[in-house]
Amino acid sequence: MKKSALALLITAAAAPAFGADWSNTELHYQLGKLKQNPFGADPEQKSTTNIYTLQHASGWKYGDNFFFIDYSDWDDGQRRRDWYGEGYFNFSLGKISGTELSLGPVKDVGLVMGVNAGGDSKIRKYLPGIQLALDVPGAAFFNTLLTAYIDDSVGVANDGAPKEGDSWMLDTAWAFPFALAHHDFSLEGHAEYIGSRDNEFGDKVKGHFLAQPQLRYDLGKSLFNDPQRLFVGIEYQYWYHKFGSDVIESAVQGLAVWRF
């Protein structure tokens, strides 16, 4: 996949934010030991990994958008760098129709289009589907997506990861803010399941489950009386069948977030 796709993903996601009802952009830094090569000679090898993330969410007249771009830097005997990004563009049927579509715990239904893209792997996935916004007590938001997982990667012939068949994804994202004494915290993150498929060599790519919950502490409020700006905490990553391999990853990473 061409590197220009990175700029295209950011531009497409951010464009409606010019008329945004609300907007939230963050820079993240994470540090931990991750299994970076689950298909290599030593799939259990852990490498100290720095991850720098640009993350954006915004709401506009007809829906909402979310994207992130990860830039990873690690050393497994050789210094390596790579990027990976995802964008999701949700069109709210409630906002478009001007009608409240709530039913039980469902506050709204949206039509969503997702794009996943990688650097060295040259992967490209399209994820059309639906998003349910759920009313969960205590949650700032609680959204569930059910999408197709359609491969449009360039494949091994073009120096990328093997092309894959199509599959499906179920993803849930949440944020639960809470306070202890005069200190503010948030438990947020997402969990996804992507179904199995075959690659271009006829090998089975196993379905995977990935959960990445974060516990954040509002350090900016405590130190500078500037709430919702600077956070520190941890992210726990549990990945069953990482990238469709046999590898199971369980890792804690340090986390710092600057919101602007």
Structural class call reads mainly beta
Distinct helical segment count: 3
Number of domain units: 1
**For the record, what CATH class applies?**
Mainly Beta
CATH architecture descriptor name:
Beta Barrel
Outline the low-pLDDT stretches: 1-5
Oligomer: single chain
Radius of gyration: 19 Å
What number is the mean pLDDT?
A: 93
Number of strands: 15
**SSE order in H/E notation?**
HEEEEHEEEEEEEEEHEE
Q: Do you know the CATH topology?
A: Outer membrane phospholipase (ompla), Chain C
Descriptive notes:
The protein contains three helices and 15 strands. The protein is mainly beta. It has a single domain, classed as Nucleoside-specific channel-forming protein, Tsx-like (Outer membrane phospholipase (ompla), Chain C, Beta Barrel). The strands form two sheets. Strands 1, 2, 3, 4, 5, 6, 7, 8, 9, 12, 13, 14 and 15 form a 13-stranded antiparallel β-sheet that branches. A two-stranded antiparallel ribbon has the order 10-11. It is globular and about 50 Å long. The protein starts with a helix and ends with a strand. Residues 1-5 have low confidence and may be disordered. This is Outer membrane protein OmpK. Keywords: Signal. Residues 1-19 form the signal peptide. It comes from Zobellella aerophila.
